[in-house]
Structure formats: C-alpha cells, structure tokens
C-alpha cells in the first residue's frame, strides 16, 4: 500500500529506499520467514490496510491484536474469525488508554477567558447520549449507529456555521474520517441546498483520492457493493465532476485564489495545527466567532491553539472510535479463545479480568522483558510416504505399542518439519541395539539349543546381583554372563557369537 | 487416497470449461462455462454427472470461477438459479464485477437478436452474483475447516486467476486461462513454487510457439491505418472486456502519436461502462499502468467515443469496436452484414474463433459468400485481418509453468485433441511428469501419496540441529575411511540433516518420534545392556628400554588426537604405569595398521566408538579362551563392545591377534 509522501521532504529519498525494502502483503497472504515462522495479516478496521497478525512458529501460535474496529464505514472491518485458535494473544489495543474517561464523542468546552464558552445545549445532549451504556453485543450495529450519529451531529454543526456565514476548517487526521466526513457533509449541503465549495488542500490529496478509488479489496462490504453495481467507490469522484469539491496541492495555487469564496469548507493538514495550510487559514479565521474548527480527540486543544490567540472561532472536538471499547475486550477474547493473554500493564487497573476465564493473563510493560511459557510439548512433523515404507515396526510384548527405528532426512519447510527418505539409501541393519527387560537363563539355553549350541547353566549366588553363567561347549566355546541388567557374550568365533546374539534378541524386548 | 477429476467441459475441446475435482472428501467445481458453438444441450456442462438427484449443495463443497469469459462463467447463473446450487462461489473482485456484464450482454444477444428462449434471466444473473464471495490475489481463504483456496495472478484478462486448492496434504492448481507474457494492460501470470499433486492447465496453444508480439501489434496498426486512410471502416468484433481494452490502449496511443482524427467508436454503453470498471480495478493491471495511474488513468481514453446505431451507414472512415467477438450474432453481426460487402472495409478477427461462428468461417479460407441461414447470405468483399496476438500462453509458456511447478501429475484441458496429444508426449518425455487429457464427461483417478502426521519430541529436534556437526565427526569412524569419502559425507550433511530416532506407534494416539535416549523412559523400562567381550592375547617382545621410554611416549603423543594422557605418573601404581605404556604402544600399532586417527585413549583404556580395550591382569578372566601354553611373552587385552560395532571389533581383534608389541 505504498503511497508517495510529501514531495520536497529532505528525507524523501530515505523513505523511498525504505519502502523498497518492504514486502507488501495482502490480507490473508502467507509469508514465511526463515522457513519456520509464518505470518499472516488480517484487517483490523482501524484504517486502510491496518491489520492484526497471526504468527505461527514451530513452538507458538500468536495473535497480535492491535486497535481494531468492528464495523468501520470505509475500510474492511475487524476480521476476528481469522484470528481464532491461537494459544497466545498479545493484546496491544491501547486506544482506551488515551480516552478511557471519554471513549465517545464529546464536545470540548474550553473554559478560558480568551476562548469562547460554548453553551449550546445540543452539544451537551450529544455528549450525554454517547455515554449511554451500549448493550453487551460485540458485532451489532450499535457502534456504527453511534458513529453515524456523531457524524450527523458534526454535520449539523457545520451547516449551522455555514448558514451563519462562517467557514469550516477540518484539519486532516485519519483518512477514513476525512472521506466519511466529506461524503456526509456534501449530502448535508445537498439536503440544505447550500452552495458552498469544499476545498481539499494537500500535496498528496490528488493521489490519495485517486488511490482510494482503486482499492476495492481493502474496503468495507458496502463500498465493495458499489464496485459490483458499477458505481465509484467514493462519491468524491462525482463531487469533483460537478465542481463541488476542488483539490489543490497547496494554498498558494493561483487557481485556488481565483476560485476562493467564503464561507467554505476546507480539509487540510495538519491536525497538530503546526504545519500545513491549516496554519495560515487558522490565522485568518481564529478570531471569527462564526467559523468552526473541527479537531479529533487526542490533541490538547489549549496547547494547539496557543499561537492563534485570541481565539474566537468555535472549536468542536470529537473522538471517533479508534479501537476495541473497554467493555468489549472480554467478549473479543472469549471469541479468540486463547490460553494466555499478554495484556498491557498500563491498562491493568481497568482490566476486566474475571475469575472464570479459560485463559490467564500476563502483564507487559514498555522495555521490560517478559518470559512467556510455551504450550507446545512436541513439534508437529510430516512423515513422507517414501520413508514410511522403509519402517520395520516391531510390536512390543507387553504394551499395545509398536516401535520402529527411523532414519531419514529432516528439513523445515513453511513452518513444518518434514521427514523424508534419504536421497542416497542409507545402510540399514536389522541388528537391535537397545534392549530392556531381563533374560530368563533357562529360556536362553533352550533358544541356544534350538540353534544347535550346547551348554550348561551355572548359578552364581555370591554376587549382589545374581549373575548366571552359561557355558557353551559345542560347537565352539563361549561364555554368556547374564544378570538383571546386563548380558555379556564372550566368544571368539564370530558365527557362534552371532547365533547367541540372535537367540538373545528373540527373548528380550529391544530395538 | 487420491484425487478424482471429472471433466465436464473443455475436455479435448475449447469451450464450457468445467472440471470437478474431489479430494479428501471435498468436491470443488472449477469454472462453470458455456460452449459458444452449440445451441442445444451441449451448450452447458452435464451437471447430472455431479449429482443424480440434483442435490448439488450436498455434492459440491464450492464453485471457483477463474475469469469472466463466458466459456468459464457462462453456465453459472443456470447452475445456481435453475439447477439450484446454493453453496459458496468464489471469484476474484474483477471477475465478480465484470462477469454480470458479460452474462447480461450474452443473454441479450441470445434473446433479443436471435429470439431464442432464454436459459436464465437478468434477475438470475443478479441473484447468482449476490452469492459470490470475492477473492483477492494470494489471499488464503478457508472455505471450510479442511479446504483452503488461493488465487494467483494469471494475466489473460482482468481478474483472471489460477486457483490453488488444498485439502489435508492433497494440493492442486487449476490454471484457468493464463498468459505467461505481459500484454498492453496486464502482467504475466505469477505463481509461487508450490508442491503439487496435480496441475490442471489450459492448452489452447499446445504446440504453437509465438514470436515477439510487438511485430504483430505493428501489423495490426498498419492494417487499420491503411484502411481508414483509404476511407474504409474498420470493424473490430471483440468481447466487451479484455481484448477491447487492450486494443483501445493500442489504438488510442497510436492515434495520439500519429495525430489521427478518425473516430474510434465503442458499440454500446456496455464497453464504456466496462472502462469505468477497469479504472477502479487498475490494481489488477500491469505494473506499468498501475504506476502511471495517479497521473492519468490509462482507461481514460482520449480518442474513443460511444457509437450510435445511425452511424452504421454514415459516410467516412471510422473504427468500431462491437460485441460479440466471434460475430456469433448481435451487434457485430449486424454491422458485419452492412460493411462486409465493401472492399474498402476491414474486419479484424480474434486469434481464436469457436467452430460454428461466422468468425470461424471467415478464418477458414477466404470465403466470398457467407450463409447466415437458409435464405440470407452476405457477400464478403472486405479485407480480413486476423489478430495473431492472444491472451493465452503458448506451448513454451505451458512447458515453463509445468516445469516450474513440477507437479506429480498434469491434466490438459481447454485445447484441441491432436495438439494436446503432442504436448502430453512432451511433458512426459521432457519433464518426466505423468500427463493426461481426458475427454468431456470422463472421470480420472489420480493416486496421491499421503504423508503421515506425527509428533516429534524437542529432544529429537535438538539432536538434529547438532546432527550436521556430529555427522562430520562420526563419518571418520569407519576403519577404512579415505579422504574422498570423508568430503562426500560432509557434503551430504550440509545438504540435508539426517535424522535418526525411534517412532512410537500406539493404537489410538498420534505416532511420536523420539530420540533413542528417550525410549526407555518413555516406555518405563530399564535398559538391559548387551555387550560382547573377548580377552585377546597379544604377543610381546620385552627389551631393555628404560632410556627409550620417554622418547617413545613423546613420539606417540604427537600422533594422538584428543588424548588424555595423565601427567602426574609419579604417584601412580607402577603396574598402572606399565599398563599405560602398553596401551600407548597398542594404540600406535593400531593407528598405523588401520590408518584410523580416531582411537581415543582414556586413563586405562583405548576406545573406538563402543569398542573398549584395557590391559587384563585377571588370570581367571572369564572372557579368556582357556588354552594352555600361554607364555610370558603374552599380554591380555580385555576387549568389550556393543553389538552395533561388532564388525569393527572383529576386525580390530584380528589385527590385534597378529600383532607383536615390542616394549
């Protein structure tokens, strides 16, 4: 999802070079690192291309859960289904850290002598409404309707300002918010029959708008439906055709000056109010009580507006959902069903951990190393057929088990071990090398006799372990000493030794 | 275990592509096309072969469509809306967007122009498309717990995909149509090097090798230019999508360069609308077009405008794109009837025309008269130009893909029988891969090998990781090791790690591979050690040597590797010192005779792998052969070894039996 950054930035070359090192991935595309780690990204819904990860190594299956939105208006939503079944969830949605007290829209009422005090009762009602407890339902439409309500409230404020002859300045924050606002505002203008121009002033606006209209795969189902019914993905295409939206790379373009009219609506960077076209525009409108400035949550308004004193412009600060809401963390985890959750220490106080969870928590904090236990006892491997055919299983006498020696190649591919037959056939011997259990000397003597070896048993009681000696006299001389844990075959003649060894092998479990 | 392939269409022919693959209990239909050359029941695949009862939902796991051409998607609305398949359907985003246009265009042609009874309605198309799940490239989609599919870029037309499907360990790729070289607007097919049991590939150009397409493009442009310069009209019958856009890019660009003003028309709203889809789906075009899209979208054509029916008989030159491609009816036929009788005009034909279409008749020879039906005919005096560039791969491309993927089996579809036979021979002889080209409605069973899933203990894996190192070390254990063998073994070890362990199989459990050392504990048993032993007599000739001893030891030390020679002998027993000297002498003798540098010396014994030797002073040693006549000049070395080194031990014993040590 590479888009070129602002031109003229001294580090453009660095950025370009950096981007070249990036391997782009689609949602759900598998990438394998080092043959052993497989990573996949799935949409998180926060912004275009934003994602959560599943990371599967030989030992662990991990879900990295970042700020996620269930039903964003523009982008593909939180794809939680694809994250199921991993042992470990690294919970990294810190969105509620910033806005725990006020997770929803609220108007910022700035009580400062230099600034206006907005006592509009409608603003209050909106903030009250947003604090209503939302039903315990993860993937319902509650969030969406909430967001829509916020947007329409914003639109009504914007219409009010425009009707009062003031302009509206919207510093650009999240792309999704901008695109959504653009659509909603233009609809509102239409329904109020207001002929107010909308300007978008940014060096990357042109490219960005063109870009978002060519990436249906990354958009929400509703947007995709537009593709399938042959409409443009976003209505800014239409707005520009009918000259309602004008896009300029910078504020100093002559075309913009020719077209300039107030009141107007301007989308422009930067949300910090320190760079970009918003700075001169704010200098123009800061003292105009009819105009309206719309800021997203996360900016300290007082500090941001300090250079623009005295401030008479109306300020509306709103927060849009930017992650999983606190009370939904538990339901999300219930769905993901991990064994262990790594949870930020900073959020611990609000951590909703219940006793009856099927998973346990570990708390992490910045710059502190954390040891995470592994849940995997054994590795998984694939035994290839050609090697299976070479196995010679041996059934054990006592247990319901068969065992076989296995000799082959082992290699790692796509996060899995494979065992295959060796390229060059290896020498395989039938000889057993490992024995267990004990040997009954009389049985051994009989087995030896079956093989034509004649001998006698001598019991030797004086040793701590009763050792028993079998003397073979015919056809060759040999001595077998056997105790509970050890048997020694002493024989110069190789053939006789082999016969004895064979007899032993039949009596004793071994491999 | 095996993969069963039922070819319902495009078996030894081109048209109505449809292959049903069963593997691991899943059943996937790849493509659901119609045959353009037939109007009877041969037009659609014979779906009754999938399910006698017509319960297709139970019979199929999913349907995957590779691209929007009618011979790949044409029967889909019929299958879902008339036959009643309600299961999942997958196709790429562009295919989902563009297939309904193709289907509706075709339906209109059939119903409006030919007056035929329709096989499906507009609503059927729309209802059918609602059931489609769009796919992105390279995205792994879990159709259900066991079946995963993935789409790869196939070139050919916008959104064309090769489909990879995996059930358990069985894997296949169905290519659909593909192009191994990029064209004006699309990139070349691209796929990962997958491990495949089966590759089902198209083989339209099973025997053709094509040269550079630029020459053929120039030829086309020259023909068009010549015609319009002479005041003629150019009819380009094409499918609405794909070829039309490619030729448009070509002509638009040429018009710009040559500063031509002759109008280029698109026959209906359809193709103009199609261009809008292309603009939104620019991410699926070639890299070059994608890169320039932020400046100017290639599909904003400068010289192309919509056509009005009244312009058919207007005077003056023009270029007209009209559907359908093979002049099988519709608007292109209507225009053809008007323009064909004039020798000024030009008709271009696509690279491939299905038998039974007018396009096909024009291609075969140079007819002067074409019968439309019993009563009507058209005089053909116009020029005919056949486009020889095709969005299909040529024989080289097919061979390249097969070689690149190296599947265990190949099935050829979507081609002509005699050519397929030749290609099959090439694939089998040149690549050594089993190849088949079943006819329609034929069933093919391909056997696959099934890997067994096992558990492997950590200890086993840990041991394998250090196995390479051990390999190199162990390889020198053999007595008769030569340097050449040694390097060979090192090479082997580098290529792959050898694994050795014990597989534990219990009836109801997953088999488990463990390291040998883990076995006894796992089974809960104690080892019973089995060893061979022999107390070996060695001749010794004693000499007065006190002055030499230090020297000898010293010189031996030079040849020892990793030798643990005790340094403080002063406090040791005299006997032990003597024994040590004996061991050293034995060692040096063995080293010279076996050329083995790996014998190690511990405090009181020599060791080579499990073979241990120590000096035996027990006159009643039970491992001694009780024989008389043992003189003073014999020293006994008690040897013991594990059965695995029996051969090695016997060889060493033989050597020792022949030795005469001097000390």
From TrEMBL, chain A:
<dbReference type="GO" id="GO:0034472">
    <property type="term" value="P:snRNA 3'-end processing"/>
</dbReference>
<dbReference type="InterPro" id="IPR036866">
    <property type="entry name" value="RibonucZ/Hydroxyglut_hydro"/>
</dbReference>
<keyword id="KW-0539">Nucleus</keyword>
<dbReference type="Pfam" id="PF10996">
    <property type="entry name" value="Beta-Casp"/>
</dbReference>
<protein>
    <submittedName>
        <fullName>Beta-Casp domain</fullName>
    </submittedName>
</protein>
<dbReference type="InterPro" id="IPR027074">
    <property type="entry name" value="Integrator_9su"/>
</dbReference>
<keyword id="KW-0963">Cytoplasm</keyword>
<dbReference type="GO" id="GO:0032039">
    <property type="term" value="C:integrator complex"/>
</dbReference>
<feature type="domain" description="Beta-Casp">
    <location>
        <begin position="178"/>
        <end position="299"/>
    </location>
</feature>
<dbReference type="InterPro" id="IPR022712">
    <property type="entry name" value="Beta_Casp"/>
</dbReference>
<dbReference type="GO" id="GO:0005737">
    <property type="term" value="C:cytoplasm"/>
</dbReference>
TrEMBL record, chain B:
<feature type="domain" description="Beta-Casp">
    <location>
        <begin position="244"/>
        <end position="362"/>
    </location>
</feature>
<dbReference type="InterPro" id="IPR001279">
    <property type="entry name" value="Metallo-B-lactamas"/>
</dbReference>
<dbReference type="GO" id="GO:0016787">
    <property type="term" value="F:hydrolase activity"/>
</dbReference>
<keyword id="KW-0378">Hydrolase</keyword>
<dbReference type="GO" id="GO:0016180">
    <property type="term" value="P:snRNA processing"/>
</dbReference>
<dbReference type="InterPro" id="IPR011108">
    <property type="entry name" value="RMMBL"/>
</dbReference>
<dbReference type="InterPro" id="IPR041897">
    <property type="entry name" value="INTS11-like_MBL-fold"/>
</dbReference>
<dbReference type="InterPro" id="IPR036866">
    <property type="entry name" value="RibonucZ/Hydroxyglut_hydro"/>
</dbReference>
<dbReference type="Pfam" id="PF16661">
    <property type="entry name" value="Lactamase_B_6"/>
</dbReference>
<dbReference type="Pfam" id="PF10996">
    <property type="entry name" value="Beta-Casp"/>
</dbReference>
<feature type="domain" description="Metallo-beta-lactamase">
    <location>
        <begin position="15"/>
        <end position="232"/>
    </location>
</feature>
<dbReference type="InterPro" id="IPR050698">
    <property type="entry name" value="MBL"/>
</dbReference>
<keyword id="KW-0539">Nucleus</keyword>
<dbReference type="InterPro" id="IPR022712">
    <property type="entry name" value="Beta_Casp"/>
</dbReference>
<dbReference type="GO" id="GO:0005634">
    <property type="term" value="C:nucleus"/>
</dbReference>
<dbReference type="GO" id="GO:0004521">
    <property type="term" value="F:RNA endonuclease activity"/>
</dbReference>
<protein>
    <submittedName>
        <fullName>Beta-Casp domain</fullName>
    </submittedName>
</protein>
<dbReference type="Pfam" id="PF07521">
    <property type="entry name" value="RMMBL"/>
</dbReference>
<comment type="similarity">
    <text>Belongs to the metallo-beta-lactamase superfamily. RNA-metabolizing metallo-beta-lactamase-like family. INTS11 subfamily.</text>
</comment>
